[in-house]
Structure formats: structure tokens, C-alpha cells
Design goal:
The protein has 5 helices and 7 strands, in the order ββαβββββαααα. It is α+β, with helices and mostly antiparallel strands. Strands 4-3-5-6-1-2-7 form a 7-stranded antiparallel sheet, with helices on one face. Strand 5 and strand 6 form a beta hairpin. The radius of gyration is 22 Å and the shape is elongated.
């Protein structure tokens, strides 16, 4: 009978802290944990990765990437007999050098009514994959303006109102270049909100992952 592992996952070298808390079964494979981390950090699995556990590397092989001694789909977390407080590392995108510190917080009894895997906590969005590492991301944070771009929104709203008032006359929109710049700034604001972590969406995707595995032969 498997146990429940409560894992605290922290992104290294980034402040303010970016972290997640996951509850998974002890028979979760390394390959499955990789997918769960990709989901909860909202990454796209486009880059190479590896786990470093008890001095050995584990992961799913990719063309041109690392070669591993074992199939990560056949290596459950329970094999490592982790103790409470024990840590291991997950590296993703070797060029950017993202490192996740994974710590076993608690071992819990399995509850039949509890859905797993689940993300039970977390703070802040993970760095977008277009960032070239922690220093690049921290520079982006320094330049980030957390305030809603109200002037740009007003400019777009006024242009839309002129278009409606004119009955669809394109010239009524005004300066297209200025509107494109305003739209780019609004889009950038929407896409980059480092203080937000959407736990509900992460759990929806974790649930979909679990259901997909259940229907596979």
C-alpha cells in the first residue's frame, strides 16, 4: 500500500521565493513527477531535464540529450526510501540552469477520498521559458511595472469607441502604430504577472494528467 508524500518544491536562486507544495503517492514514478513539476511551474517540457537523487541522474531521454541508466517510468519515488526533510534536485533547461530543490516534508497515510496528485500550496509564477536564467529573470522583475496599464487600455477603448461610432470606418481608429504599441504593452502585462500562481488551473491539469493515465491500456 503506497503512502502519500508531501513535497515542497522551491526554485533556487530567485527571490522573492517561488515555491509549490505537492501531494503525490509514493509509487509515483520519476517520469510522472517530471510531468507534475512541468505542470505546476507552467513550463512546456521543451528543454532537457534531469533529477539528481542519491548521487545518480534520472530522467526521460531526448534526442541529443542525456542518456540515463534506467527507464524513469519504472523508477518509483518509494525506491529511494526518503526520510522526512530529505532533499533532491531537479534541473530543467541546462542553458538557463533552472534548479528545483525538492524536499520531502511529510509522509502521510493514504486516504481513499483524497485526490492525488494535488498541488496544495504555492506562491508566485515561475519564470517564463524565454528567460535565460535566474539573473536574466531578476532583471526582468526589476523592470516590471505591477500597475495595470490604464493609459494604454484607455487609448484602446477610445479607438474602439470611435470605430463603433463611425459605423466601422477603419480610418476612425486613429494611429495604428500607437495602438499596436499600446496593445503590446497590455499583452505583456497580461502575460507576465509574477505575483500570481493559478493553483486551481494547476490542479485541473494534474487531474487531467491522472485521468489520462487511468484510461491508458
Amino acid at each position: 500500500m503506497p503512502d502519500l508524500y508531501q513535497l515542497r518544491v522551491v526554485l533556487c536562486d530567485v527571490s522573492p521565493l517561488v515555491w509549490r507544495r505537492l501531494v503525490v503517492t509514493s509509487d509515483t514514478s520519476i517520469a510522472e513527477l517530471h510531468e507534475m513539476l512541468q505542470i505546476t511551474f507552467d513550463w512546456s517540457d521543451e528543454h532537457f531535464h534531469r533529477f539528481r537523487i542519491h548521487g545518480r541522474d534520472y530522467g526521460m531521454p531526448h534526442v541529443g540529450g542525456m542518456v540515463f541508466d534506467e527507464d524513469a517510468r519504472q523508477v518509483p519515488l518509494s525506491r529511494f526510501r526518503l526520510h522526512r526533510g530529505e532533499r533532491f534536485r531537479y534541473a530543467y533547461d541546462f542553458t538557463a540552469g533552472w534548479q528545483l530543490d525538492v524536499r520531502l516534508e511529510q509522509v502521510l497515510p493514504l486516504e481513499a477520498t483524497r485526490f492525488t496528485p494535488a498541488c496544495t500550496g504555492g506562491r508566485r509564477a515561475a519564470p517564463p521559458e524565454d528567460r535565460a536564467g535566474a539573473r536574466d529573470y531578476l532583471e526582468r522583475l526589476d523592470q516590471h511595472t505591477p500597475d495595470l496599464p490604464l493609459e494604454d487600455l484607455a487609448l484602446l477603448a477610445e479607438a474602439l469607441q470611435r470605430l463603433l461610432d463611425s459605423g466601422g470606418e477603419r480610418k476612425a481608429i486613429g494611429d495604428l502604430a500607437a495602438l499596436r504599441d499600446a496593445l503590446d504593452r497590455v499583452t505583456a502585462y497580461q502575460d507576465f504577472q509574477p505575483n500570481r500562481f493559478h493553483r486551481r488551473e494547476a490542479n485541473r491539469r494534474l487531474r487531467a494528467l491522472s485521468q489520462h493515465r487511468e484510461v491508458q491500456p
